[in-house]
Each structure stands twice: as C-alpha cells, then as structure tokens.
Amino acid sequence: VTMPKPDFDKEPHYTDFEKRSIAQHNHFSNLEFAYYRIQGEKPRTLGFALHDSPVGMLAWMMDKLFTWSDSYPWTATELITWTMLHYFHGPTTPLHMYRENDASPRQEIPFESTPTGVSAFAGEMEMVPRSWAAGTANIVFWQEHEKGGHFAAWENPEALAGDMVTFFRSVWA
C-alpha cells in the first residue's frame, strides 16, 4: 500500500511498526525512486538497453531484488531465474506499465469500497500506516509481519498465504 500522507485534523498514534514503515516509505520516496521515473518516462529505451545486455539486465534485477527484499538470502540460481523470467520475453512491456499507470496523475485517490485485505511486511519499500490506507479503502483485514519485503510471496510465503486464507474466509463467509 503506497500513497502520500493524508491531511489529518489530528495526527494519529503510530505503532512502532508504522513508524518504521513511514521511515522506510520516506527513504524510498527520496532516495530509491529513480527506477520509477525512468521506467515511467523512458520504458522502451530502458527496455531495449536491458534486453541488449544480459549482464545489464542481471544488474538491474539484482538491485531491485536486494533493495526491495527484507534481507532474503538470494541464491545465484534464484537471481538468474528471476532475471531470465524478465529477460526472455523482453523487459519493455512490463516497464511500460509504469508509463500507463502514471499517464494521468490524480489529485485525489478515489475511495475503494470493496472489502480490502492488507498483509503489511516490514521490509516493503512503501508500506504506509493503516490510518493512511483506511482513508482510501475499506480495510477489513490488516496483518503486520516482521519478516518479508516487496517480494513477500517469495520471502515469506507461509505468512502471505495464511493472510489470504484468513481474509477470503472472512469476506466469503
């Protein structure tokens, strides 16, 4: 879950987990956001360059895997596999999604009334506090985890799967 900080009449009380999430969110927004800019502004240029250089593609993927994960011990086989999954079909199309998603910036995030579940992983690069997310979505399930990052399905699959089962049982009951 990522979004700018809402305008609160009174600042909410933040848990330690949420304070760490805010600090991480600020760090990534200020120091680790260049990938988003180039993928959104020049997806074809970057895509062709990465596809032309397997070593360049590996370096790009390793940067994301190490920076966005929560100290997960990536093996050489995993790094090569993840890179090749992006390399074989060409990275241009997935990069272009950043341009498409950012085509018309909105001033206000519309409220999502569909029941929403969130698995909040401590290493996620742009996790925000529940109070921020609650203003934009009907949060009916929120579970915080100390282990896991952006690739939580790979880093901490049991926790994510358990959250999904719990969430869907609650909304489909």
Write the layout of secondary structure elements.
Elements: H1 16-31, H2 34-41, H3 43-52, H4 54-68, H5 76-87, H6 92-101, E1 112-123, H7 130-133, E2 137-149, H8 152-155, H9 157-172
Parallel strand pairs: 1-2
Q: How many beta strands in the DSSP annotation?
A: 2
Number of helices: 9
Rg over C-alpha atoms, rounded to the nearest angstrom: 18 Å
Which structural class should the secondary elements be placed in? alpha+beta
- Strand proportion, as a percent range, falls in 5-15%
End-to-end gap:
25 Å
**SSE pattern, N- to C-terminal:** HHHHHHEHEHH
Percent of residues in helices comes to: 40-55%
Overall, the morphology is: globular
The main sheet orders its strands as 1-2
Oligomer: single chain
Mean residue pLDDT: 92
Verbal overview:
With 173 residues, the protein is an alpha+beta fold. It contains 9 helices and 2 strands. It has helices spanning 16-31, 34-41, 43-52, 54-68, 76-87, 92-101, 130-133, 152-155, 157-172; strands at 112-123, 137-149. Strands 1-2 form a two-stranded parallel ribbon. Helix 7 links the parallel strand 1 (112-123) and strand 2. The longest helix is centred in the N-terminal third of the chain and has 16 residues, at 16-31. The protein is globular. It starts with 15 loop residues before the first helix and ends with a helix. 20% of the residues are buried. The model has no long low-confidence stretch (mean pLDDT 92).
